[in-house]
Amino acid sequence: MKKYVFLEFALLSATLLFTSCNNRGTVVNNNDCQDTSKVRNVILMIGDGMSLPQVYAAMMTSENTTSFERFPVTGISITKSFNKEITDSAAGGTAIATGVKTKNGMIGMSADSIPVPSILDILAEKGKKTGVVVTSSITHATPASFLAKNINRNNNEEIAMDIANNEHLNIIVGGGRKYFETRKDSINLFDKMTSKGWKVFDYLPEDYSDDKIAVITSKKHMESAKIRGDILPQSVNFALKSLSNDENGFFLMVEGSQIDFAAHDNDSVTMIDELRDFDEAINIALDFAENNANTLVIVTADHETGGLTMIDPNGKYTATDFHWTTKSHSALPVPVFAFGSGAENFSGIMDNTDIMKRILKLIE
Ligand SMILES: [Zn+2]
Q1: pLDDT averages per 10-residue partition of the chain, 364 residues
Q2: Ligand 1 center to residue 330 CA distance, Å?
Q3: Does residue 219 fall inside a structural domain?
Q4: Contact predicate 314/31, CB 8 Å
Q5: How far is the CA of 219 from the centre of ligand 1 (A)?
Q6: Which residue segment(s) compose the domain that 93 sits in?
Q7: Contact 306, 325 (CB under 8 A)
Q8: Number of domains in the chain
Q9: I need a surface site. Which of 1, 45, 96, 160 has the fewest CB within 10 A?
Q10: How far, in Å, is the centroid of ligand 1 from the Cα of 329?
């Protein structure tokens, strides 16, 4: 009888093990399966100024299924800053990057001006490779929140100095050469970076095997999507190839920076172009996550821009049918889309400071 109970227990355990493996794991080779409850690679993507109206605008004007519709898990993030109902990209970026609420305009520090580590800093300390890919100047508020500490988002040259001194970084792609090359202090930060092992380019190179690659394409921000072409999705592809050659995993932040610019201009056609471009970049990240277990992809935003809404179309909505209610940001919450390992932890209503905390909890 004892033996029988033991046998039954052993069978039950084996079944449980098998079931839990099936539920959480991805079958890699035949009967082999990996525990995907632990996250090794994190791809965090931020559509600047992209709330639900912008996402739905992309969906309504697209011939194809958008990347947003590929996510199994969605949540909602409250975006207000330490001192305002309506955040800017500095406080919004800092909340997502560091998990700390700060005042509008501040980068990588708490409201009382204490510098705080970003998720990029923390994961680099854990041995992960890191990258930041944006279409704005690399010194702009969102990327700066991950890479720098400054009391004022407009201190582009100081932020560039922080980036050049950042020991944690492997890849940066963006604009902003001016803040590295033609500075008030006459220091050429690219020379400084080169001496520390960086390869610096003004175009996306073929070879992604170097350990430290800076692709800074333009004087300030990159051109708008129509003119700059597909450098954002290409750069995501490049960064993923480069960062994934390390068994410790990686953290990659990608920003569709100029959705916000077009929304400030209440320019629906350009905004749709920017969303299309970001959508393509997201698809590349999702394809990577599908083929690489233990990868988590999060897509969210720092705030909504333009107070975009959809009323009374002339038949089917086109880019010219959208209505704007402000040239500034609004207080609207933003969506959180999650895919891959640990995605189920990102549903419900959360604060923007919860996103990085939830990611960190899942890291192996
Ligand atoms: Zn803005």
Answers
A1: 48 44 38 64 98 96 96 98 96 98 97 98 97 98 98 98 96 98 97 97 96 97 97 98 94 98 96 98 98 97 96 76 94 98 97 98 88
A2: 10
A3: yes
A4: no
A5: 20
A6: 36-362
A7: yes
A8: 1
A9: 1
A10: 6
